[in-house]
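Hi R.,

Here's the chain you asked about this morning:
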Amino acid sequence: MVHTELQLEALGKDQQRIESMRARNEARRERFLNARQRAIGIDTDSLDQQVAEKMASHAGAKDEEAEHAQRQQYISMLVEQREAQENAIKKAEHNALKGVWDGQCTQPKNDCSKMADPVVADACGLAAGQKFDGEDRSKGSRVRLQAAQMKSWTTQQMAEKQARHAEDKDEEARYAEYLKTVQDARDALESEEGDERRRQTVLMKDDNRALASEIAGRKSAHKQATAAHDAKELAKNYADPVLCEDTSAMISAMGENRIRRDHFKGFSKAQIQQIYLENQRVCEEKAGIQGADADEEAVLALQQEELRKLVEEAEYEQMQQQRAVQADHKAILEAQREEQAAMRATEKKESKKSEKKEAKKESKKAAKKEKKVVKKAEKPDDEIPMDAAAIKAYSSVIADAAEDSEPSQPVIYHQVAQLNDEKP
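And the predicted structure, written out as tokens:
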């Protein structure tokens, strides 16, 4: 029952926390839907309320911690009481067993009734062999009680879980409805703001157009007035006898085309206009001359470009011809190189053959000389007799002399080969 009460208390606290959260969300939704209060500025009352709620939550957390500590202390006290009760029961049983043993010690030996009372297992001690230490005689009832408690507890837990699940679903549905309401209000507010912004933009556009037309009218009126004033000023200056002197006074009495130099007042308007026309013709003539020069320069540039292309083509053809000639020369040189390599190979083979023939001739000459020396050694003349070592030394000296001797004229092997072929 202790655990059930604690769980109920925890569930009550959770329910209170959920209710407070719902109240806060509802208040926040009301504040958010209040457009006037939202548009004015900061809601100090709501901020103060939030601060108070936070302080209350901190105080509630502290109270919960204190209650949890008291609950833990109460549980430890219950555990200690149960342990003390169990120790007292064990101590009483021990004292009763000790009294039974003391009573049995006072009885004389082998003084027992022939028919004893029936055995009461609960009243027997350990020595009777009817009840053993650790034996649980109330197991069945305890197991049934525990099963009933477990069933009650599981049923209660399932009901609580289902209630929490249903509450969570309701909370989620309410929160979704709240979000939908907030989103609808936000969309409506945004649409109103967009419409108002577009209306203000249209009004501003109309005002700007009206202001622009007014400014344009002012500018055109000012321009017309300025042009009229300028025309009046020019007409006045042209009519002013001081600024524009009468040029008719300089005409000589001898003719209209003759001018008195001492009465010259400047050119007339017709003369000035004629001068302007002559200057314009001169400018047009210069522009024509410059255009003709530009045309001539363009033609000259085209001619230079054509000449450059022709020169490049000629140089390219010349380079191609040079490359072809170089390729021919290279092919000729390669052919000559191959021919010379073949000739050197044939000369090398012939030289090897001639060297082999000379070596054979030298070996034959050396063999003949050795035979002659042997024959001379066999003759019983007055010559100095020579043993085998002396003969060997003499033959080695002769061979070295033959190797060290050089002919007076260089030997040409192919001539030697021809002479050998001509001999019968």
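The radius of gyration is 72 Å.

Let me know if you need anything else.
M.
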